[in-house]
Specification:
By secondary structure, the chain is α+β, with helices and mostly antiparallel strands. It folds into two domains: 179 residues, BirA Bifunctional Protein, domain 2 (2-Layer Sandwich); 42 residues, Roll (SH3 type barrels), CATH 2.30.30.100. The chain has four helices and twelve strands; from the N terminus they run βαββαββββααβββββ. A seven-stranded mixed sheet has the order 1-2-3-7-6-5-4, sandwiched between helices. A five-stranded antiparallel sheet has the order 11-10-9-8-12, with no helix packed on it. The longest helix has 22 residues. The termini are far apart.
């Protein structure tokens, strides 16, 4: 199964995810990528601001009529971003971090934000190609720290192809294919982590992997718990 690679590009916009929502509510059926050279109100998880400096990639894929388990597509997106980074920087240590970050050298290279409404799903992706923010809670980096970075347009083209690949695998083979590929790239697997839950509770244990739904498996002194939502710190 393939996804048509259709693109709408903006020089400047508030947020590619917000534009995806507006397009869906106006009747756009997708799939379509929305890309912006600059975002004035980009956002990450939990409403955090997401900076999009010139030379970085901000893009959203709008899908309509998503299946009920569409949250698993965050893993497809993470794998697509990791593949994209590895395509341009084949010697860089690219890993994925639960639930939906991509790291390079142990620092955050990209973030993914899924948002949905009646009959639509926005898969928002931001990749630090040329620049990265400082003073963030989790240290950040950019592809420029490893190679001469690609243009946002070239990065988006590779990203679209790799997302289409993992989307097709998910649709035809199920989540287990994504799960296995994600675990093969996972950062911190088998190591102690701190998990901050949506309730702001903090749990400590060993990162055992993810289950068949994508939930994090945390081993707390021999008791393994599945955590559906939260943030991980090493």
């Amino acid at each position: 199964m393939t996804l048509p690679d259709r693109l709408i590009r903006h020089a400047e916009i508030d947020s590619t995810n917000s534009e995806a929502r507006r397009l869906a509510e106006a009747g756009e059926r997708g799939p379509v990528w929305i890309m912006a050279d600059r975002q004035t109100a980009g956002r990450g998880r939990r409403g955090r601001a997401w900076e999009t400096a010139a030379g970085n990639l901000a893009a959203t894929l709008l899908l309509t009529s998503p299946p009920p388990d569409f949250a698993q597509l965050s893993f497809a997106a993470a794998l697509a971003v990791a593949d994209t980074a590895a395509h341009f920087a084949p010697t860089a240590p690219i890993t994925v971090k639960w639930p939906n970050d991509v790291l390079a050298g142990g620092r955050k290279l990209a973030g993914i934000l899924l948002e949905s409404g009646p009959g639509w799903l926005a898969v928002g992706i931001g990749i630090n190609l040329a620049h990265f923010p400082t003073g963030t809670e989790f240290p950040a980096t950019a592809l420029a720290e490893f190679v001469t970075p690609p243009s946002p347009q070239d990065a988006r083209a590779v990203l679209a192809a790799r997302f289409a690949h993992w989307y097709g695998a998910w649709m035809t083979e199920g989540f287990e294919t994504l799960r296995a590929a994600w675990l093969a790239r996972a950062d911190g697997l088998g190591a102690p982590i701190r998990a901050r839950l949506a309730s702001h509770e903090t749990r400590h244990g060993v990162f055992e992997g993810i289950d068949g739904s994508g939930a994090l498996l945390l081993n707390e002194q021999g008791r393994v718990t599945a955590i559906a939502a939260g943030e991980v710190f090493f």
